[in-house]
Write a structure and sequence with these properties.
The protein is mainly alpha-helical. It has one domain (about 1-179). About 80% of the residues lie in helices and about 0% in strands. The chain has 6 helices and no strands. It has helices spanning about 1-20, 30-55, 70-100, 105-125, 135-170, 170-179. Helix 1 (about 1-20) packs across helix 5 and helix 2 packs antiparallel against helix 5 (about 135-170). The radius of gyration is 19 Å and the shape is globular. The N and C termini lie far apart (about 40 Å).
Length: about 180
């Protein structure tokens, strides 16, 4: 049930971000499928990989049950810092697009600012408070399975969403309906 809610939430978030940012997504073609895959890769990086570096997934029942809410707060805080800083930098990218003509400078600057924000957050937020006493091969296997399934999820989300966008072209029908 929780995985369904998470999938629907990420899918809705992805759709909203794609709808508003479609024209700004860097791609070497006009294909919305390629743009959706690029966006899915960015969101996978920002919403999964970066938080997993600080707070990697652990199997159920690993860790003290008394600290579960504290660990959730730490993870959600780091996830929110990653997501909202990316969103803010996306808005800054658009603003800089109007203010500057040097595209290469923007492309280099935005990831560097994101990296600086995340390094500071990584250093400020405390580590996972629980010692892992489960066998590390079990923990590493769980983390690998988690990374694999999240990678498949984001990849398929981008591929399917982009294919549907290319097929139905909602950006064109919205213009026709308002005319």
């Amino acid at each position: 049930m929780a995985a369904t809610i998470l999938g629907i939430s990420f899918g809705a978030l992805f759709g909203i971000v794609f709808m508003y940012g479609r024209s700004s997504i860097l791609s070497y073609s006009d294909s919305n499928t390629k743009k959706a895959i690029v966006l899915a890769g960015i969101m996978w990086f920002v919403l999964f990989l970066v938080p997993a570096v600080k707070y990697p997934a652990n199997p159920p029942a690993v860790g003290d049950p008394e600290t579960i809410y504290y660990r959730e707060i730490l993870f959600i805080t780091f996830l929110a810092i990653s997501g909202f800083s990316t969103l803010g930098l996306a808005f800054a990218y658009r603003k800089l697009g109007i203010a500057t003509s040097n595209k290469n400078k923007k492309i280099i600057m935005i990831p560097l600012v994101y990296a600086a924000i995340m390094i500071v957050a990584f250093l400020i937020l405390p580590p996972n408070p629980d010692e892992i006493i489960a066998p590390m091969d079990l923990v590493q296997g769980f983390r690998f399975a988690s990374a694999f399934t999240m990678s498949i999820f984001w990849g398929l989300l981008g591929l399917i969403f982009g294919a549907f966008w290319d097929k139905f072209k909602p950006h064109e029908t919205a213009r026709v309906a308002t005319v």
